[in-house]
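Reposting from the mailing list since nobody answered there.

I have sequence plus structure tokens for a pair of proteins and want to know whether others read the tokens the same way I do. The first protein:
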Amino acid sequence: MNKQELIKRRFEITERLRAIADDMDAKKREMTEEEKTEVQALHREMSAIDLRIQSETSVQPAMSQKSREVRFDEILREAKKGGNNKEFVIQREAVVTSDTNIDATFPVTVEALMEPLEEGLILDKLGIPTRTGLRGTFVIPGIGAIEATVAGEAVEISDSTIDWEKLVPKPQRLSVSASISNQAINASDGTAYRAVVDQLRVAIQRTLNSRMFTTKQSGTGDFYGPFKALAAAAAVPASSIRTIAQKKAAKHILFAGEVPTYKEIQLLRTIPTTKGVRYLFGAYIMDAAMAGELRATPKGAGGGRMILEDGYIDGMPVFETNYLELGTNKSYIAFGFFGYEALGQFGEMRMIIDPYTLASKDCVKVVLNADWAMTTLRPEAFCLGECAGGGSGSGSGN
């Protein structure tokens, strides 16, 4: 098959896999043996197709940034002029489209959308493992607490176990959109590309950050970081936690005042380590108002050192976001080892250029759909602290 035929066949495989998944969701059923065999065969065929496409694509010169911008402008004009929706599938190496009558070289890549996210709160600062283009049931291996057993010679010991079922992500569809006026398209010289990619990048970043740190259920689905579950757990007064057993049982602690003491802040950090969690990208999370309070709160009576200095509390970084308390009147401080929170994007990113929906506003709408999953690999690696008497209220953040 030539490249266009490979692209068409790949799209057919994707649609078949999506149809099987939709039917399983609708009927709340497991995959049949026949479907398992079919899915395995389709994945093998798709891998072979990807290799062929990649081998043909790799010999072609990469598009320059200017070429990407110009080509994207052309695609927008074609969609507007033709009056048809254009759907594209964005991959890491090759980009394909369901419309085989137009050039399959699409200028927006996964890198173009994901690279700017590294400047955001999640990816570069917290060390959260992030992967794109995942397929099937993805399990993150190699992270868990395994204890050694001290035994005499020739004494049989039992294996430590890890509940791998908890490590299986459940992808949820994340849909974001951007719009651009027809006047801007007509007059653009690369500006359309920059405007749309920037809008989509900010929308993705905002959604991922809000779902990572929110403490409340929002809509349907199961796309949350570790703190929603911790907020739902019973709050235990920090003053009552004294023994190792109490620290191991604690998930959600209640500070005595509106601003925690240095001792309470240390307890928030101690609880995960008491549970045997290895240090892996530890950080405190709080809103800007609480960070300001801790910068002005001494560690002890008459002391000259503040709890929070130069963005750190005793060597652990502090990051500010109001998403931790989104939609509540409570003030939270969280601590976690974020290497135990995985973020993954599954399958292809699908982009639709739609000239109809916003026609009354003389705009073209660009919609990006992708399947994402957040998976807390070790819930005991995180702890949530709640301040008494409320705090700075709800808001939006980074």
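The second protein, same order (residues first, tokens after):
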Amino acid sequence: MPKVSINILTYNRSWLLEGALKSVLKQSFKDFEVVVVNNGSTDNTAEVLESYKNQLNLKVVSLPVSIGITAARQRALQESSAEYIAILDDDDEWVETDKLKIQAEFFDQDRDYVLAGGSIEVVLPDLKSRGVPKLSGEIKQRPQTDPAIRNSMLFRNNFFTSTVMFRKSAALRAGGFIKDADDLAEDYDLWLRMGNLGKMHNFRPVFTQYALPDYNKSRFKSFLAKQLRLINREKANYPKFWLAKLLLKIRLIF
């Protein structure tokens, strides 16, 4: 059984998926499987995945139609056989070749930790014309230590999805990825629940070239409303609930 299962979701972005897979091949740590959920793609995604079967320990779950991002993340989690799960979205690429090694060794050495992430360099991909993704040069980081992460966890998601590794057992104990009508912020939802089971950490190095989500105004409002529901649920588990709630309500007004 591999030590790490890499979870990749993809939908009609084969030209970006190939970049993600190439970044996996560059990892110094090799004890992994790659679990790809092809979420109803109608482009040449299947052919791209087939071309990598001889290079990667690849497990492909092909769905005839999209089941949404949350259900697809849960399907990937359920199909994973490893102790640790690393997420890599199809429009992101790992740039730290020791990324998996750093995180796997960290979890091996300290059983108290359930979730670990890292920093990102922001990418501005031109998805419509299939142009080469453009690096913004902007580096984004999140708090590093468990106390610092907890102190602001109700204000924002303190983990960039394609940098994370987590213990599969803890994710399943927390309930996994839970789909709702909004089908967004599914990662933030799970991280909050996992944080009740163990410690969290962020590494300083840039692990990932990361495409930030491009929400329209309506979608962004839905995200903020979901965040408000999540922090109401977690008010007894993380500090500064009332301040986080007040700031979110102000953002929802404007």
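Reply #1 (J.P.):
I read it the same way you do. The beta strands are 4-10, 32-39, 58-63, 84-87, 93-94, 113-124, 134-140, 165-167, 199-211.
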